[in-house]
Amino acid sequence: AMRAALVGYSSSEEEEEEEKEKEEEAAAGGRRGGSSQAPPSARWVRRERAGPGEERAAFLLILLLLGPCSAARPRLPAPAGLPGDPEPEEAVANDSSRHGGRVRGFPHERGSWATHIYLPCRVQEEFLELLELLVSHARTYVSSLAAMEDFHLSLSQCVVLRYHWIDPFVHSLKARLAPFHRFFCVADQVKVYTNQNKTRTFIGLEVSAGHFQLLELVSEVDRVLEEFDLPTFYKDPSFHISLAWCIGDLSGRLEGQCLRDLQDIVDGFEDSALLLRVQWEQIRCKSGNKYFSFPLR
């Protein structure tokens, strides 16, 4: 049997300890066997000498047998939610079957958080009616089109942010965006877009009024991105709200006659001028599964 000592023992203490261990071994039914390994658990017991003239106290580590050394014990689960660990949605992000066939623009790496800055758009019931008309007609050209479920206007590309950069990044964003006031945009021009690697096609409503204010916001967001050596937004961006998407580059089918039809639907929709006038009230940053909001004044 192995013994760990906190202090030096006299020979009488060692003998006493050996007797104690033998008694415990017998009480355990000899479960230790012939193993010379230390048992998997132990507890501290304080023992003091009795009698007058005692000069010191000793703390002994008594190794208690709670089971045979060879017995397999269940391994404790790894702690969850450690900084930099992929979130459940990120850990399977490379499985395109889980995302309607979409492919990531960059490979997921442990501790890397996909980050995006945008203006969230709250829509009215009438907007969803217009969306249904547009998607139904566009599906006669591309049957695989899917309607978006939430709506936004991007102020940045999707960039990769390290976990330990998130707090200073958000702090810098908050400081630079603090002076901005709420403003309106008009998004009423139907456009067809593809992403950079041509793996997805979108139908969107491009902004026709409010472009200057958006450029001012992007300028400040770009400064923050530059601080962290991240890619800035596109040159001469086409600000838009995406309405529907499909896999692959199918822009050729959607442009031309389809696009003209869609614009006619928008122009002829009741109260479309009022419906497509959007007030922006906040800016949002999504990093991994974390959301940060910056209210406009």
From TrEMBL:
Gene Ontology CC: one annotated term: nucleus
Alphabetized UniProt keyword annotations: Hydrolase, Lyase, Nuclease, Nucleus
Family annotation (Pfam families): HVSL (PF09749)
Protein's GO biological process: U6 snRNA 3'-end processing
InterPro entries, sorted: Usb1
Reaction equations catalysed: a 3'-end uridylyl-adenosine-RNA = a 3'-end 2',3'-cyclophospho-uridine-RNA + adenosine; a 3'-end uridylyl-uridine-RNA = a 3'-end 2',3'-cyclophospho-uridine-RNA + uridine
Biased composition (Acidic residues): 12-26
Domain of life: Eukaryota
Chain residue ranges for the region called Disordered: 1-49, 77-101
Function summary: 3'-5' RNA exonuclease that trims the 3' end of oligo(U) and oligo(A) tracts of the pre-U6 small nuclear RNA (snRNA) molecule, leading to the formation of a mature U6 snRNA 3' end-terminated with a 2',3'-cyclic phosphate. Participates in the U6 snRNA 3' end processing that prevents U6 snRNA degradation. In addition also removes uridines from the 3' end of U6atac snRNA and possibly the vault RNA VTRNA1-1.
The protein's name in its UniProt record: U6 snRNA phosphodiesterase 1
A GO term, aspect molecular function: lyase activity
Subunit note: Interacts with PLRG1, CDC5L and PRPF19.
